[in-house]
Structure formats: structure tokens, C-alpha cells
């Protein structure tokens, strides 16, 4: 299974996927890594000799034009699966419609709880004693797509956003790697998980 990963930041989840994909027998390989800004996570791709591409948000006049360029880049690689892992940007409808359901996203909360860009902060603010991590199919909502995997994670009284996110990310990575593996082996059928609307 060929995979393109899109990031915006440190790419720690990307790093974990690259490490897993480097294991002999892992049924998926990351063929390129893209970002909407100069992402620190590019270093992980470069360490594995994997091509990176940049579609800088700030160089475009609209989400649609940015998305069209991103779509053009994705089409060059023509992956079997697109993984958003820390891409902090909503994709335009046209791109999601073209790639869904072969486009999945990781989220640091127990969806549908706490969707959006601040899931960890929102869980803390809500004072809940547990949150979670989720892997979903990307649809045209904000973290509203079909849930492929999720797991509960405790919130500790002394948690701040950093300590909680650091407890969530390892779970997120494990779920992501497992989902990618199950898609690659055919155990998980995205078309069945996300019926065309
Ligand atoms: C991840 O928790 C991701 O789900 C969220 O932002 C974080 C990105 O972390 N959207 P990293 O860039 O993979 O380290």
C-alpha cells in the first residue's frame, strides 16, 4: 500500500509510521511527505530518504487554490492512501471529495468529543477525567468522518496540555499504524467504512 502523509508540525506521528513502515513485512510504505508550511517533521522523511513537497498556505489566495495545488501534488504520487497526521489545515471540499474515503486523519480526542484544532486543550477545559485518540476517514466536516479506531486515555488532575498530549500521541500512533496495516492487508475496507454519500 503506497501512502502519502501530510503534516504541519513536528511529525512525531509521521516518525512512528515511518519507523513501522521500515520494518520488513510491514505492508505499507510512505512514498512522500507533504506539508502546508516548512514543517520540522520533514526531517523524519529526509532521514528515510523519502521525498517531501511543500504547498505553502501563505502563497495562495484561497483554500481552493491551495487545495488545487495540493491535489496536483498528491496526483503526482497517486498514493493508495493519504494520511493526515498533524496537518493543521482544513482541506477544500473538492480535494476531500476526490480522495475520500482513501484519506484518513488522526485526532487527539475521543471523537465525536472535542473535534477541531484544539482537542487536547478543549478536553482539559471541559474538566473531563478521560479523553482519547481517534483515527477517522476525512469527510467534509471538521473531524466528523467515520471512526476507524479510537481508544480512551485518562486525564490526570495535574495534566496540562503538554503532558496530556504527550500521553495521547503514543496511543494515536499505535492506532494509526494499526489502521494503516489493516487497510493494507484488506482487513479494513475503507469503502465499507465510509459509504459514498
Ligand atoms: C497530533 O496529535 C495530531 O493528531 C494533532 O496534532 C498533533 C500533531 O503532532 N492534529 P505531530 O506533528 O505528529 O507531532
From TrEMBL:
Report the EC code(s) recorded for this entry: 2.1.2.2
NCBIfam families named in the record: PurN
- Enumerate the residues binding N(1)-(5-phospho-beta-D-ribosyl)glycinamide: 11-13
Q: Which residues form the Formyl transferase N-terminal domain?
A: 3-180
Organism of origin is Microbacterium aquimaris
What GO molecular-function term can you cite, just one? phosphoribosylglycinamide formyltransferase activity
Biological role stated in the UniProt entry: Catalyzes the transfer of a formyl group from 10-formyltetrahydrofolate to 5-phospho-ribosyl-glycinamide (GAR), producing 5-phospho-ribosyl-N-formylglycinamide (FGAR) and tetrahydrofolate.
Residue positions annotated to bind (6R)-10-formyltetrahydrofolate are: 63, 88-91, 105
| UniProt keyword list | Purine biosynthesis, Transferase
* EC class (word): transferase
The Swiss-Prot or TrEMBL record describes its family as follows: Belongs to the GART family.
Query: According to UniProt, where does the site described as Raises pKa of active site His lie?
Result: 143
Give the residues annotated as active site: 107 (proton donor)
Q: Which CDD domains match?
A: FMT_core_GART
Q: Which InterPro entries match?
A: Formyl_transf_N (IPR002376), Formyl_transf_N_sf (IPR036477), GART (IPR004607)
Q: In which pathway does it act?
A: Purine metabolism; IMP biosynthesis via de novo pathway; N(2)-formyl-N(1)-(5-phospho-D-ribosyl)glycinamide from N(1)-(5-phospho-D-ribosyl)glycinamide (10-formyl THF route): step 1/1
- What name goes with this protein? Phosphoribosylglycinamide formyltransferase
Catalytic activity annotation: N(1)-(5-phospho-beta-D-ribosyl)glycinamide + (6R)-10-formyltetrahydrofolate = N(2)-formyl-N(1)-(5-phospho-beta-D-ribosyl)glycinamide + (6S)-5,6,7,8-tetrahydrofolate + H(+)
Q: Which residues cross the membrane?
A: none
Amino acid at each position: 500500500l503506497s501512502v502519502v502523509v501530510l503534516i504541519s508540525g513536528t511529525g512525531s506521528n509521521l516518525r512512528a509510521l515511518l519507523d513501522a513502515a521500515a520494518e520488513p513485512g510491514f505492508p505499507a510504505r510512505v512514498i512522500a511527505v507533504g506539508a502546508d508550511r516548512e514543517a520540522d517533521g520533514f526531517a523524519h522523511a529526509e532521514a528515510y530518504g523519502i521525498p517531501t513537497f511543500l504547498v505553502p498556505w501563505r502563497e495562495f489566495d484561497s483554500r481552493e487554490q491551495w487545495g488545487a495545488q495540493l491535489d496536483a501534488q498528491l496526483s503526482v504520487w497517486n498514493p493508495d492512501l493519504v494520511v493526515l497526521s498533524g496537518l493543521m489545515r482544513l482541506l477544500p471540499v473538492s480535494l476531500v471529495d476526490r480522495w475520500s474515503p482513501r484519506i484518513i486523519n488522526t485526532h487527539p480526542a475521543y471523537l465525536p468529543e472535542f473535534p477541531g484544532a484544539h482537542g487536547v486543550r478543549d478536553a482539559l477545559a471541559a474538566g473531563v477525567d478521560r479523553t482519547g485518540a481517534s483515527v477517522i476517514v476525512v469527510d467534509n466536516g471538521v473531524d466528523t468522518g467515520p471512526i476507524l479506531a479510537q481508544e480512551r486515555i485518562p486525564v490526570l488532575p495535574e495534566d496540562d496540555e503538554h503532558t496530556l498530549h504527550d500521553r495521547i500521541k503514543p496511543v494515536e500512533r499505535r492506532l494509526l499504524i494499526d489502521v494503516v496495516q489493516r487497510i493494507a492487508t484488506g482487513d479494513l475496507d475503507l469503502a465499507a467504512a465510509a459509504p459514498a454519500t
